[in-house]
Structure formats: structure tokens, C-alpha cells
Amino acid sequence: MHETDKLSLMNTQIQRLYDIACKETRLIIGLMSGTSFDGLDLALCRISGDGSNTQLELMEFDTVAYEASFKEKLKSIFSRKDANLEMVCLLNAWVAQQHAAIINSCLTKWNYTNEQIDLIASHGQTIYHAPQLLHGHAEFPNATLQIGDGDHIAVDTGIITLSDFRQKHVAAGGEGAPLAVYGDFLVFSKAGENRIMLNIGGIANFTFLPADKDAAKVFSTDVGPGNTLMDAWIQKNSPGKYFDENAAMARKGTIHEELLSALKDHSFFTAPFPKTIGPELFNLSYIRSAQEQSGTMDLSAEDVMATLNCLSADMIVKSIKACFPADEEFTVYCSGGGMHNPLLMEHIQDQLTGILFHSTEDLAVNPDAKEAVLFALLANECVAGGQLKFGDGRKGIPNVSMGKISFPA
User: Fold this and answer.
1) Domain 188-363, CATH class in plain words
2) How does 181-192 read in b/e, with b if 16+ C-beta sit within 10 Å?
């Protein structure tokens, strides 16, 4: 059968996907909704090429804040072993519908039509992350779960949607995180400069990008809590607040060394790299346990916050130092909500003297948009790339293309 005849028999949606893969440049919307439930990050990216030839331009970026009722719905099932299964089922569809409505609204605001967009890359909303290190059941593999069904987004926007990226990572032997390593290498690597891409979200993680741009040397890992413990603490002690803005509470407190020592007393911190974790471990119960262990139940909320702030900084610094020789030169590029916490950044920089710190703004990517951008890059690789080999097949960095494809009809 002639090639044109074969194409004429192709499902029209598959034909559309084929045409998108063949384009020199694609318009892709990356979506990110983190465990802090701040809102939905939307990054409209113009991406050309693939692999080491990838070129990216961030065209538009918005964060659409979630209403309090939205956050409460998510918190009712998030990171809970006793979550209501009916609510998990309902929110899987409902969250996707809300995200689709936000996408449609932003496209109108940005003066784009839905037809102009080639792909949507949706991270979804993580509700449970269970690496084997955390769940401890030898007969079960690493696991992670995100809701916000891709089919609903595709149908409600009319745009081919890639979603559920973390599942392929787990299936191929990874832990489902961090996924930033793939996009970090494609966009932020630079010959002649060792770079650490430090992302401080709910959980802090970093990617190492070697100066020789050898993809086999790329390294990425979670390091421990970023904002998650501080966010949980302020939500408990200051209802209506969701994060410690400008470290206002932490600056009023004093670091308590006994509590800090108890907070650091967990096997996660001594487990080998790479590793992943989530709020399933680092939560209010974790803080309470450390307070009971250290006899600090009567500490002021401000002193606890100051100690939690120090904990996040210490574990970031400890992990970076543990992964690299003392004489290794590198530059740190920051992103994520934690980079806006001035006290946290002071603690980190005070312990990494002589190291240059920048944000990804210096690399032409808004640091708040970075994670959404990275999922757009993953979608581009899934559809049009997939040839580059990462991490030399080492644990935590499987050589796979990620993302499930949902057609609008």
C-alpha cells in the first residue's frame, strides 16, 4: 500500500498528532499544580527541535490561584491513607474540568485560540507519593498517584493532552520524581559551567548539569522538606495563611537545637541518593513526633517555625555537599516558592560560601514558571523526541519518554 494511502486510513486524531510531531515548532501549554495547592501554573511555550537541539521560548505565564474551597477539597484526600475513595474518584474528573476551564480562560486572556495550541502537558495534582523507601512493603514497587484526568482536559479544551507523566518513570524503575532532570538538561545545560538547578517547592530537589554536557552524568534527587513543613505549621497556627510570607513568623523565633536535631533524626536523610519523598512523611505528625522526642511541646509557634526554616536549609546544603567534592566548582540557579523565603535563602547561602547564586530568570525562564515549562518539554520529547540518553541508565533516571496521550474526540 502506498504511504499516502496508509495515511488516509489513519485515525484523524493520530494524523493530527503525526502532523504536530513533524512540525518545526510547536506551541505547548505546560501545567503544574504543586502540593502547596497555591494554584495552577500555566506556561505557554514555543518549542522547536528535540533532545540536545531543543529551543524554548516562554511566551506567556500565569498562576491562577485556587479558591479556599478548592484547596479544602484537595486537602480532604491529600496524603491520607484513609482518604474517601468516592471523593478521589469525583475529584479526578472535577479537578481536570477546573483546569480545562482555567486553560480556556487564559487562552482568551492571551489572545490565542484553542486551535493554535498543539499540545497541553498536564502534571496533574499529586495526592499520594509512595516510594518503597517510605511505604516499606517489599512485595510492592514504587508508586505515585496524580489526579486530574487527561481525557477531560482534552475534551473540554479540544487540545491533545499529555498527562500522568510520573507513571512511566515508575514503571521503568524510577520513583516518579524528580522529573525536572530531563527538562533541566535540555534547556539549562551550558558547556564550561557545572550547574545545580535547585528547586524549592513543597519538597526541595536539585539537578546537577555537568560542564561537559554529558547526559550520562546528569544527576537529580529530592533532598527533604522545602516549604511543606513550614506551610503546614503556619496553616495550623495562623488560620487563613498558607505560607510564611517573607519569613515573618520565622524571623520572630529562635532556632531550637534539640528540636532541630530531632527533626533530622530520620532514615530518609541518611538513605543513599537519588531518592524521593513527599508530605506523606514530612507533615504535622512528623513535627509533633520530633517535639515529643525533644521535649519541646511548649515551644512558641515562632520558635518552631524558625527551626523548620533552618531544617530545610540544612538538608539542602548537606545534600549538595554530600553529592559533590569540596573542590568542585558550580553555580546554583534557584526556582520554586522557597526561593522567595528570604531567611531560608540566607541560611543556604551562609553555608555555601563562595558559590554564586542566581535564579532561572537569569536563564530567560521565570523561576515560578519553571516546573510548568519542564512538563511542556517532557510533552515535546514524548511526541517529537525521545532519542537522548539520560543518566547512563542509573537508578532514578530511566531512559524513557513520559506522558499518556489523550485525544479530544
Assistant:
1) alpha beta
2) bbbbbbbbbeee
